[in-house]
Amino acid sequence: MGSVTVVQEQDRAASGAGPGRRLVGGTPRQLWLLTVGLGVLALLFGLVFALALGSDSSSFASLQSRTSEVSATSDLYYELNDMDAQAANALLVGFHPADPSMVPPSVDAAASMSAYEKDRSAADSDLTHIARNPQLTGAAGKLIDSLGTYEALIGQAIYADQNTMKQLPAEPPAAALGSYTEASSLLHTTLLAQALQIADADSSAVDASYSGEHSSADLYGYVIVALALLLGVALYAGNHYHARRFRRRVSWLAGGIAVCLALGFLGLSTQLGAADDLHYAKKEAYDSINALTRARAVSDDANADESRWLLEGRTAALQTSFFQKIGNVAGVPGVSGTSAGGDPQPYYSGLSAAVAALRLDTASDSVSGVTVSGYLGTELDNITFSGEAQAAYDTTRAFDTYVQDDAVIRSDAKRGDLAASVAFDIGTRPGQSNYAFNQYMSKLESVVQINDNAFASGIAAGKSETGATTWMVLIIGELLVLLFIARAGAVRLREYH
């Protein structure tokens, strides 16, 4: 008890000291102030760590929810395009063709209208999903109204065509063509513009949200480790006070130092890991998904323009529209969509050369020699996951095959053989346009699926890393630090008394 007696004598001597010394008081008061101060700092550390984990959970849930909504808007854009493409295909061959043998059952008018109805049902479902967002309810409502008008016009066109016998290829009755042309114009000037506006707004919101959440995760990590170091220094100072005041080299606070530092570095690791998982899910997976789903929608729109070009008199405007859209999917250096509309050959040969220049390295899972721009160029420059390089390479080559087939369609039509042009356009056998287009779309979906799986994996990893196990470690560690602080103070007070 000799050391305690000395402390008590020091306290009696301090009673006559200045106001600052009297403010902190004697040893019991100092012990209480030290214990409370350390406890408050420990609670602040735990609170910040908990806020970080809560923010992480919110970030991953928000990213998953927002990207689901963006997927709905991208799907809607595709479904609207495909509705128009299917209606055009139905009118292109007619419900009662003069030569039924040239129309494969899988693409006859009835099959096309069945696909149209399937797209319409999916579009209704996506619009319902989009309308759940209060910020998009108004835009979704306008889209629903415009869609109703479009569907009515298509219904009139189909009714007129169904009552026409022995229809020649690409020669629907005037009433059917008039209603379809009005409907398609409404789709491209209003419906698709509205859908794209929603998709762009939603996509921008995802980008902005990700940027803030990624930065927050990093910042939280450094704040947590800084607080852990501060708490560790404070605990070390407290331990030093105990050693100097009570001649005890090691107190319970030493255990608190070990726990708080371990928690601090766990917090840093967790937050940096969460930031990496956000980056993996958003930048490496979802950005490719977004580009590829846009490619799917625009490709389908271009394919519809190909059918509309045959259906509506082979106009220059529809030819230019086709090349502008496929140029957005896969741009060629030095060839614009507008110039290709006037002279398609430079685009055909430019795309073929750009695709031939691609070099696939399956060993490193990479593609080099990329000069293709547009959505497919974005994907080729963002190869990340196992098997993605091969899938993206195959998709780009399949797109080139489809585009080269377009040259055959336009060549047959320009030399006056419209029946051959339509037959090649709707043909589903290898070497025909619809077959090539379906092969391309199938391969495109495989790349989307690879990135979808990676996105889901990134979200799951992030949720796991910041989930129940980390919360449990935080809670147990925080309680241990508080226990060590309280125990150290209680032991010293008991010694004093």
Q: Your description of this structure?
A:
By secondary structure, this protein is mainly alpha-helical. The chain has one domain. The protein is built from 15 helices and two strands. It has a two-stranded antiparallel ribbon. β1 (about 360) and β2 (about 365-370) form a beta hairpin. The mean pLDDT is about 90.
Essential attributes:
81% helix, 1% strand, 15 helices, two-stranded antiparallel ribbon, 2 strands, mainly alpha, 497 residues
Rg, rounded, reads 34 Å
Provide the domain count: 1
Helix/strand-derived class? Answer: mainly alpha
Low-confidence runs: none
Order of strands, widest sheet: 1-2
Q: What is the 3D shape?
A: elongated
- Alpha-carbon distance between the two ends: 10 Å
Helix count, DSSP H or I runs of 4 or more residues: 15
What's the arrangement of secondary structure elements?
Layout lengths: L1 H13 L4 H6 L2 H67 L15 H23 L5 H26 L11 H73 L6 H59 L4 H14 L7 H6 L2 H12 L2 E3 L4 E3 L5 H7 L7 H27 L3 H9 L6 H33 L2 H29 L1
Antiparallel strand pairs: 1-2
In short:
The chain has 497 residues and is mainly alpha-helical. The chain has helices at residues 2-14, 19-24, 27-93, 109-131, 137-162, 174-246, 253-311, 316-329, 337-342, 345-356, 374-380, 388-414, 418-426, 433-465, 468-496; strands spanning 359-361, 366-368. Strands 1-2 form a two-stranded antiparallel ribbon.
